[in-house]
Amino acid sequence: MDDAINAIRTFNRFFTRHVGAIDARFLDTDASLLEARLLFEIARHEPVSAIALQAELNLDRGYLSRMIVRLEKRGWVRRDRLEADARTRPISLTQGGREVFYELDHRQRAAVAHDLKRLSAVEQDELVQALTKARLFLDRKAPAATLSTTPSINVLDRPVWNALTGRQAHIVQGDETGLRFAPEYGPFAAPLDPTGDTSVLADLAGNSEIWLVEKHRIVPPVGLKLARSAECVQMVARTITDGGRDHAFCDLGDDDAAEMFALATMTQPGPFSTRTHDLGRFVGIRIDGILVAMAGERMKPGIFTELSGVCTHPDHRGRGYAGFLMRVVASRMIERGEVPFLHCYATNTGAIALYQSLGFEIHQTITATVLMPA
């Protein structure tokens, strides 16, 4: 017990110093760490009541009230009165407060990214798993999602589950019985045990389809029915072959999101939602300013990263764009210490041959299942 206490206290001292928790000015801004956290919670829930903030932050009511008054005097928050209940004064950010929050959020993301860039993909995954385990051990109210504990290739047996309990755990919905990507990122979901009770899938699906990628065939639970199912090959690349063609390409991001979604909707490379482009890095080819081809990243189980979203406008096919962009994306993964993998329908022999020419090898067969409300 003494060793455990000393270890936790030592880590606490290191981490409070590391994140600047003891600095009067958090990340060299005009806010303290607690003020930054309060701004974050207001931004996440606005308009929000003081009672809700008190419950979320576990702060003394009087202390929280004084903090809100200070933020109000600085012009960062405002408290409105509701016509229906004059006693209730929901709290929101002002434009000035929103600018402070955006700057804080940007700096904090940059600081975390700076830490992560020094780590390999394996180390990043181990860090995520360790931090998640620490949170689950110390916070018994947290959903006790099963964690993947090994970076071995076995994580590909359940790519969705191991992505959602690993590097992409920050964009999930669900609990310890089942998880899914938040709908704006895509329809992929996974139950805790695909061979056992899968009733949670009905709740995760809601009124829309959900996709599962598992070694085992899924029996639809009550409330869902089978829309379609197909055998896929799962392919992995340790190295990427050299290509004979070279094309001008560009990195894609939020400014290209509408065009990416339109191209994916037209060509149907697989599920692609409004924020699928945020799941990883995407590259594209523009002709006369118009996006005509793209490829990018999707699921990230363990040290593996899925190559996905590969599509070309029908008017520009046959020019080698898809293979070229796939080489770019996969080569970048390998440079980061990650291992590219992908899924392809087992009947699509032409695509399988293309992927093999790039350096991908068939690892195993796996089943893609689409369930929809009954």
- By DSSP (H or I, 4+ residues per run), the number of helices equals 11
Q: What is the makeup of the main sheet?
A: 8 strands, mixed
Structural class: alpha+beta
Give the overall shape, derived from the CA principal axes: globular
What sequence of helices (H) and strands (E) makes up the elements?
HHHHEEHHHEEEHEEEHEEEHEHE
- Classify the helix fraction into a percent range: 25-40%
Summarize the structure in short.
The chain has 374 residues and is α+β, with helices and mostly antiparallel strands. The protein has helices at 2-18, 33-45, 50-57, 61-73, 95-117, 121-138, 159-164, 200-205, 257-267, 321-335, 349-358; strands at residues 77-79, 91-93, 172-175, 178-181, 189-191, 210-214, 224-236, 250-252, 282-287, 290-297, 304-312, 339-345, 361-373.
